[in-house]
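hey
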């Protein structure tokens, strides 16, 4: 009798392997479907593909446990049906279904996940299989709570018309523009990567006290709508040009860009040289030293498609409340920030199109601390774009504090007004002089 195999033990051991294989199948299928070229590279499309992939994993668990073990886990058909149906609806109908499910899906998923927990505890005798499935169910619980919290938070934070400034159509989407003060030339502020107009609150009023100043939100953040076009430097500059035209804010302008905003200011100056009277580069990212030669490729990839998919994943993560953990409220803001960094290569190359700023006033303001090796050299190179420039290091400041700290932001504003003064008077820039001194 001792040689006869224990038929009840073998299936238990096999069920652990089935559980592991099923969860692995679901994760792998989700990754492959999210990257599949036939799946739309949108938030709804990528999210739907992931849900269908995960549904496949639960379906495999149900089918294999019924077919090969004495512990049929038929309850696993429920999450397979729930996730699969949601995924197919998102793939078929896109964004409208996405918004409609935002209120229904989180509580339904929470109820389902808790029910699944009970089923696993009661009907799964394999301890190893339970340990494999519990984390998956816990993730569903967290996803439901995060998505529900994000939906409620978005409703509470829902933005009506801005109390100041205006939303203007620039061709398929609207951008927020807020201008204050009077005088010429008009200063246009470009926030850094991931920032919005409100993040320049210390600088704007100081500049507005002396001249006209405009600040805006790039596509997908703050008050502005998301854009359907890739948001590299060329598109950002074109959108800004259209925005200023439709806002009846005539040039010539003094463009002041912080960090990545400096790239956009340089690109704008290269594309519309007659409309730019001065530049202020605030600890700006440097453009490419030279254009990279085109390299032939036998099978050209589609970088925009990859960027769209990664951005869609970021927006989907924000839908689960993860964006708030990194200080970003709206999914569109997180997506636009991710896109900004993914398009860094093209933006850096496009900014390099400005080979010279001739003798127009240019101020380069550099953080006094925290810069990486080689940063000071790149800032000097930026200053050399014009024969009428200054390079000022703001002692004690950091890259971020030049806009976020009140005292350091005041130093940034002084640098901007130095350029304004030089444009007005035609006088040379003087590193030892500050506006208002």
């Amino acid at each position: 009798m001792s040689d006869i195999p224990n038929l009840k033990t073998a299936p238990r051991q096999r069920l652990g392997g089935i559980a592991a294989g099923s969860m692995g199948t679901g994760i792998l299928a989700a990754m492959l479907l999210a990257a599949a070229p036939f799946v739309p590279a949108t938030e709804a499309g990528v999210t739907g593909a992931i849900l269908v992939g995960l549904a496949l994993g639960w379906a495999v668990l149900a089918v294999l446990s019924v077919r090969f073990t004495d512990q049929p886990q038929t309850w696993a058909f429920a999450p397979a049906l729930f996730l699969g149906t949601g995924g197919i609806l998102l793939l078929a109908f896109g964004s409208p279904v996405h918004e409609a499910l935002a209120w229904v899906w989180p509580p339904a998923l929470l109820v389902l996940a808790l029910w699944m927990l009970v089923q696993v505890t009661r009907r799964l005798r394999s301890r190893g299989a339970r340990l494999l499935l519990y984390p998956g169910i816990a993730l569903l619980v967290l996803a439901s709570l995060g998505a529900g919290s994000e939906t409620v938070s978005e409703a509470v934070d829902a933005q009506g018309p801005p109390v100041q400034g205006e939303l203007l159509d620039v061709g398929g989407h609207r951008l927020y523009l807020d201008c204050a003060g009077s005088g010429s030339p008009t200063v246009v502020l470009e926030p850094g990567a991931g920032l919005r107009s409100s993040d320049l609150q210390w600088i704007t009023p100081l500049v507005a006290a002396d001249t006209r100043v405009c600040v805006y939100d790039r596509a997908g953040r703050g008050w502005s709508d998301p854009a359907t076009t890739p948001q590299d430097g060329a598109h950002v500059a074109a959108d800004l040009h259209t925005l200023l035209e439709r806002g009846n804010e005539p040039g010539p302008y003094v463009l002041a860009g912080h960090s990545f905003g400096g790239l956009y200011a340089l690109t704008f100056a290269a594309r519309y040289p007659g409309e730019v009277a001065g530049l202020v580069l605030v600890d700006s990212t440097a453009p490419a030293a030279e254009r990279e030669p085109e390299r032939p490729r036998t099978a050209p990839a589609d970088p925009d498609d990859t960027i769209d998919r990664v951005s869609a994943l970021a927006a989907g993560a924000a839908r689960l409340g993860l964006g708030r953990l990194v200080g970003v409220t709206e999914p569109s803001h997180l997506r636009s920030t991710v896109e900004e960094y993914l398009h860094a290569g093209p933006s850096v190359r496009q900014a390099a199109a400005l080979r010279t700023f001739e003798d127009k006033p240019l101020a380069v303001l550099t953080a006094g601390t925290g810069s990486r090796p080689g940063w000071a050299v790149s800032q000097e190179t930026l200053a050399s774009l014009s024969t009428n420039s200054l390079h000022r290091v703001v002692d004690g400041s950091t890259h971020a504090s030049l806009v976020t700290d009140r005292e350091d932001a005041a130093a940034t504003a002084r640098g901007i007004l130095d350029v304004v003064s030089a444009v007005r008077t035609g006088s040379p820039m003087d590193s030892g002089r500050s506006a208002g001194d």
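The domain at 166-288+306-425 is CATH 3.40.50.1820 (Rossmann fold). Confidence is low (pLDDT under 50) at residues 1-10, 291-302, 321-328, 432-437.
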